[in-house]
Amino acid sequence: MTTVVRIDPAESAVFSEFYDAYRRSFNREFDQPYTAVELAIDMVPDDYNSTVAVLARDSEGVVVGGAWAELPLKDNLTFAYGEVFVVPEQRRHGHGSVLVEALADACAGAGRSTLLCEGAWGVDDQEAPAKQFAEQAGFTLEIMDAHRELLLPAKLPALVIDSAYEIRSWRGACPDELIDGYADVRRLMVQEAPSGDAGLENEHWDAARVRSEEAKWEKSGRVPQVSVAIAGDGSVVGHTQLIFPRDSVEVYQWDTLVLSSHRGHGLGLALKVFTMHEAADLLDGRRRIHTYNAASNQHMIAVNETMGFRQVAWLAEYIRTI
Predict the structure, then answer these.
(1) What pLDDT does residue 224 have?
(2) For the chain, which has fewer Cβ within 10 Å, the N-terminal or C-terminal residue?
(3) Residue (of 322, 321, 293) closest to 307 by Cα position
(4) What are phi and psi of 307, to 5 degrees?
């Protein structure tokens, strides 16, 4: 029998149990889990997101898994972005199914009608238990993303910047004079990149949210190296983010976007190469960079492969009406 209860992640003892189960459940070789500090900070509600979380125990009271969902508060108000985990030795005992239903109920109670979760598996995994579990739990595939990694140190292609553009980079806080343009590019990610047919809308981004994100990054020990492409009229037309978690050998290439009206000038590749040059000291001693993009995004795939990234896994985005 599985017992599931709602939890407050801010309670340290409960979060410790929650994180311990999450950490033990994360046994895939092609990625690493969040640190306890990262996850704790990410789950703190703010003006832009709230969180629901549940913890599962077996009949003897032993923690067997958990789940949480992020609920956006400024956009996509019918969506919840969830994660479900079960410790390896307790899988295939029905705990995951109970957790999914508990998470769906909690999200529905918060006024959400669509639960979006991800499943990951190695690029050569023919069985893909995550895929089987998602389908059995009533989810349908929304979009496939490819997970690629670049082993470090890496030999980079030459940096070529179209003379009609400038690239600027910063570490930590975005310069005040760029923040509005940077926020606007962040806002356009959904409409400018493949995102499936679920009906996601552009996220709310403004200067205040950029500052809120930067504050969270600092608290969680993440060091960002961010670069933007600037057109001749001074407008920000593209960006990329390299994120360096503290006390880790991993690096994460998060959002990369060039506005459609400025594509064809090599800006995607230039942004990534420029950012790696700017972050050379942070890259020293790190093992690999992870990046994710829609499997249909052939342009970004070509950019990543030119840099030396190679696919190691699939990341499937699944949706379920709740």
Answers:
(1) 98
(2) N
(3) 293
(4) -80, -15
As a whole number of angstroms, the longest Cα–Cα distance in the chain is 67
Q: Are 270 and 229 in contact (CB under 8 A)?
A: yes
Q: Residue 181's closest CA among 162, 207, 201, 202?
A: 207
Q: What was the pLDDT predicted at 304?
A: 97
State both tokens at 5: 């209860």
Q: How far apart are CA 222 and CA 228, in angstroms?
A: 19
pLDDT digit string (tens) for 203-260? 999 999 999 999 999 999 999 999 999 999 999 999 999 999 998 999 999 999 999 9
Digit-coded pLDDT (tens) for 132-165: 999 999 999 999 999 999 999 999 999 999 999 9
Helices (H), strands (E): how many in the chain? 10, 12
Superfamily of domain 151-316: Gcn5-related N-acetyltransferase (GNAT) (3.40.630.30)
If 0-12 CB within 10 Å is exposed, 13-18 middle and 19+ buried, where does residue 280 land?
exposed
Q: What is the pTM of this model?
A: 0.94
Q: How far apart are CA 280 and CA 184, in angstroms?
A: 28
Closest CA to 193 of 245, 143, 247, 156: 143
Contact (Cβ atoms closer than 8 angstroms) between residue 186 and residue 205: yes
CA distance 107 to 136: 19
Given CATH 3.40.630.30, say whether it is the number of domain 3-112.
yes
What CA–CA distance (Å, rounded) separates 258 from 253?
Answer: 15
Token pair belonging to 274: 């420029």
Q: What is the pLDDT of residues 63-110, one digit of tens each?
A: 999 999 999 999 999 999 999 999 999 999 999 999 999 999 999 999
Which backbone phi and psi does 240 adopt, to 5 degrees? -150, 155
Phi, psi dihedral angles at 219 (to 5 degrees): -65, -35
**Which residue ranges does the chain devote to CATH 3.40.630.30?**
3-112, 151-316
Q: What angle do CA 2, 81, 249 make, to 5 degrees?
A: 95
